[in-house]
């Protein structure tokens, strides 16, 4: 398998500014491996016969091994590492050049194993075009790629070349890329890729060093380090170009998806859980709970504040009355000026007055008032009354697309994460609902252990 001189296709610019490079990298393929095994077998047979190995005897020695300078935290499904067997053509011309540890271009010195910006063939950026952000990080330019120098060779000062590994921007991930052994739903940037994130690879090329525009500062991000903040170019994932497989990344939260370092993560406060949770997942959970409680037409009624605890004496009694141990309130209201007896014997059965009233009810004819005729003081009987029903007016809810089936709250409520307060602020967007509170907060609840995050 041979590597293309450019890592992605593009329309040729009107003014071709790319530096000429006569070298091409080839990777060892299965055909080469088979040919090497056959050559080794012929060499062994020739040695047994006492003859020379033939012209093909050293073909299996052509390919060299490039140990990968990248060691991602994750792993690949198939290959154990990213080491690559390769050779450069024309081989004799490449091997005849002198190897160097560094080169100087436009007063800037570049070292082997360092990261560099490389012009992609379009017009190179000028000093006025290059911009840096508030952290002093050079902003990405559309006419530059990033690579890592593996080897420097030169015939003279006008013919200096570098063998490099390309660093991919997430947008450059090709079709049929596999993540965790499965084809990605769409090629290019994935939801967990950060703005300044690169992807290491074993895609090798040889370039003319005059296409180098500047030094690039790239560091590896170890996801196990929770406190590490990425304020420049970084990589955590690697691409094996032989199988188009991405190395695995750490997955967290209830959704078991990787973390985007540009977005907020909240850790569960329970020591036996401590799961890192995505801010979007926490907001989604709070919005789903809100929609389940209020639906499309119910206003949010704020709960009343809890009453202040009553003042109590040290012995647990106030004004001679005993206090309930749980509520702190008197068990019975005080009755000042009335002597309180110690005890009374309660007898089962009805009192004499209740028995007399029962006999009177039994002697009264059914259908007549116990107090006399229709002119008595009892409640008059009238015809059937029809109860007025409550408002059953249905609120017309606009139809939402299929994408909203998993998010029924869209267009009705929105949420903002308040990390410092450990709450989610809910805002009611329903114009047809009157009354109630329009903005309130809900507690942060861990999506794994279901405890309130404090």
Automatic annotation (TrEMBL):
Residue ranges, compositional bias (Pro residues): 301-311
Biased amino acid composition, Basic and acidic residues: 10-34
Residue ranges that the Swiss-Prot or TrEMBL entry lists as coiled coil: none
InterPro entries tied to this protein: BAH_dom, BAH_sf, Znf_FYVE_PHD
PROSITE patterns cross-referenced by the UniProt entry: BAH
Region annotation (Disordered) ranges: 1-60, 297-405
SUPFAM superfamilies: FYVE/PHD zinc finger
Ranges that cross the membrane: none
Gene Ontology molecular-function annotations: chromatin binding
Domain BAH span(s) in chain numbering: 122-250
Protein origin, superkingdom: Eukaryota
Biased composition (Basic residues): 35-45, 393-402
PANTHER family, sorted: OS08G0421900 PROTEIN
Protein name from the UniProt record: BAH domain-containing protein
Organism: Verticillium dahliae
């Amino acid at each position: 398998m041979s590597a293309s001189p450019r890592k992605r296709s593009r329309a040729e610019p009107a003014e071709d500014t790319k530096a000429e490079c006569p070298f091409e990298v080839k990777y060892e393929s299965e055909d080469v491996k088979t040919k090497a095994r056959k050559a080794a077998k012929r060499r062994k047979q020739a040695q047994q016969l006492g003859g020379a190995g033939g012209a093909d005897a050293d073909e299996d020695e052509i390919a060299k091994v490039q140990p990968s300078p990248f060691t991602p935290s994750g792993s690949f499904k198939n290959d154990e590492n990213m080491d690559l067997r390769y050779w450069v053509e024309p081989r004799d011309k490449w091997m005849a050049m002198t190897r160097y540890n560094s080169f100087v271009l436009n007063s800037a010195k570049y070292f082997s194993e360092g990261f560099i910006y490389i012009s992609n063939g379009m017009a190179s950026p000028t000093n006025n075009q290059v911009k840096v952000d508030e952290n002093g990080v050079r902003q990405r330019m559309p006419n530059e790629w990033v690579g890592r120098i593996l080897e420097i060779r030169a015939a003279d000062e006008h013919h200096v070349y570098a063998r490099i590994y390309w660093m991919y921007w997430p947008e450059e991930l090709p079709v049929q890329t596999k993540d965790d052994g499965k084809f990605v739903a769409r090629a290019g940037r994935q939801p967990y890729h950060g703005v300044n994130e690169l992807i290491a690879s074993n895609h090798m090329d040889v370039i003319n060093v005059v296409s180098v525009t500047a030094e690039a500062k790239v560091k590896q991000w170890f996801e196990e380090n929770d406190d590490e903040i990425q304020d420049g170019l970084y990589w955590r994932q690697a691409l094996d170009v032989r199988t188009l497989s991405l190395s695995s990344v750490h997955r967290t939260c209830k959704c078991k998806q990787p973390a985007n370092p540009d977005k907020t993560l909240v850790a569960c406060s329970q020591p036996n859980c401590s799961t890192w949770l995505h801010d979007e997942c926490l907001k989604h959970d709070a919005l789903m709970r809100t929609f389940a409680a209020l639906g499309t037409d119910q206003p949010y009624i704020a709960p009343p504040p809890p009453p202040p605890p009553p003042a109590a004496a040290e012995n647990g009694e106030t004004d001679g009355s005993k206090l309930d141990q749980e509520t702190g309130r008197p068990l019975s209201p005080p009755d000042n000026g009335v002597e309180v007896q110690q005890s009374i014997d309660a007898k089962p059965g009805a009192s004499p007055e209740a028995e007399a009233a029962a006999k009177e009810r039994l002697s009264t004819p059914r259908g007549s008032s116990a107090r006399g005729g229709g002119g008595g003081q009892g409640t008059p009987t009238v015809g059937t009354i029809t109860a007025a029903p409550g408002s059953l007016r249905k609120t017309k809810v606009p139809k939402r697309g299929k994408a909203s089936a998993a998010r029924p709250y869209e267009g009705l409520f929105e949420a903002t994460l308040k990390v410092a307060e450990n709450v989610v602020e809910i805002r009611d967007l329903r114009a047809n609902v009157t009354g109630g509170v329009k903005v309130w907060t809900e507690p942060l609840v861990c999506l794994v252990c279901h405890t309130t995050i404090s």
